[in-house]
Structure formats: structure tokens, C-alpha cells
Design goal:
This protein has 184 residues and is mainly alpha-helical. 59% of the residues lie in helices and 9% in strands.
């Protein structure tokens, strides 16, 4: 397959489009969570549990993947168990630890909700060459690492709230703007 010609775009334009996609994704996640009777954090954790497949996660694994504290993960797991989406099982390799697995019926319900969207995304990916898809996948992996690093900086307090003086013109245009190359 040969890739099709696409209009040029700057990194700033790509970031703006990403901001729009992420914002819509947040709204979509809220809608899906509500449909499934969950909150967004619990849905996110359930997604990681489902994504683990045959290698069930420990509570610590889930905390590391989400950036939540182990105490917060305990609350998430309690809610997911009460809602019938997941359960804790003893780790066969270490009986002191537990692994989290999704209930098969819950997994089917989540797939039923997401499958139409994922099918649409698969159709979009089908319009790209394998090399282009590899670039997109690489970009998402690297952007995820950068997002994780930024979240760590936020949580550490390194990036405190801006003072009123710092917000005086020129104002930062993010999110939802088309910044020029090199702006941050």
C-alpha cells in the first residue's frame, strides 16, 4: 500500500489537533464510564486490567500504570468488585500477593461499548502504510512517556500554580490553539 498525500502540518498544528482529540476523548470516557456505572478513574483501571489479558496485574502494577497511590487503587478495586467488573485472586507464584482479573461478562460489556469506535479507528489506520502506522505508534509511545514525566513533575510540586503576573500577556494559547513552531 502506498500512503496518500497529506497536507503539510507544523508540530504546533499537530499538538492543537491532539488537544482537540484528547479533550473529546475525556468527554467520551466520561460518557462511557457513566454508561457502565463507573467513574473515569475506575474505567481507566478496568481498561488496564482488561489490557493485561492472560497476565493479570497486581494492585502495585495497576498503581504504577496509572500513577495512583496503592491506597487509591485499593478503593478502585473495591468499587470494581462491588460493581461486578473485576475480582482479586491469589497470585499462584506468591500467595501473599493478589492479582486482579476482569469478569468475562464485564469484559464483553466493555468491548461491546468500545468496539464500534475501535472499528472506525481501524478503518482510519487502514488508510496509512505500515511504515506510517509504525510512526504513529512510536509517537504515541513516546508521547505517553512524556505525559507520564510531566505528570510526575506536576505531582512533585515542581510545577506549582502560576502567579497572576505570570499569566499577563502574552498569554499561553494552549490548549486548543495552533501555536507557532517552537512555542510552548
Amino acid at each position: 500500500m502506498q500512503g496518500k498525500s497529506r497536507p503539510p502540518a507544523t508540530a504546533g498544528e499537530a499538538i492543537s489537533r491532539m488537544d482537540h482529540y484528547v479533550a473529546l476523548g475525556l468527554i467520551g470516557q466520561q460518557e462511557v464510564a457513566q454508561l457502565l456505572g463507573l467513574n473515569v478513574t475506575d474505567l481507566t483501571c478496568l481498561g488496564h486490567i482488561l489490557g493485561a489479558g492472560e497476565q493479570p496485574l497486581s494492585a502495585g502494577d495497576l498503581a504504577a500504570l496509572t500513577g495512583l497511590t496503592t491506597g487509591a487503587v485499593t478503593g478502585v478495586l473495591n468499587r470494581l468488585e462491588r460493581a461486578g467488573y473485576a475480582e482479586r485472586r491469589p497470585d499462584p507464584a506468591d500467595r501473599r500477593r493478589v492479582r486482579v482479573v476482569a469478569h468475562p461478562a464485564a469484559a464483553r460489556r466493555v468491548v461491546e461499548v468500545y468496539e464500534p469506535f475501535y472499528s472506525r479507528l481501524a478503518a482510519v489506520f487502514a488508510e496509512y502504510t505500515p511504515d506510517e502506522v509504525a510512526v504513529i505508534a512510536d509517537w504515541f509511545a513516546r508521547a505517553t512517556a512524556e505525559a507520564r514525566a510531566h505528570l510526575a513533575r506536576l505531582r512533585s510540586g515542581e510545577l506549582g500554580p502560576a502567579s497572576k503576573e505570570a499569566l499577563e500577556p502574552p498569554m499561553v494559547k494552549f490548549p486548543f490553539s495552533c501555536p507557532t513552531e517552537g512555542s510552548a
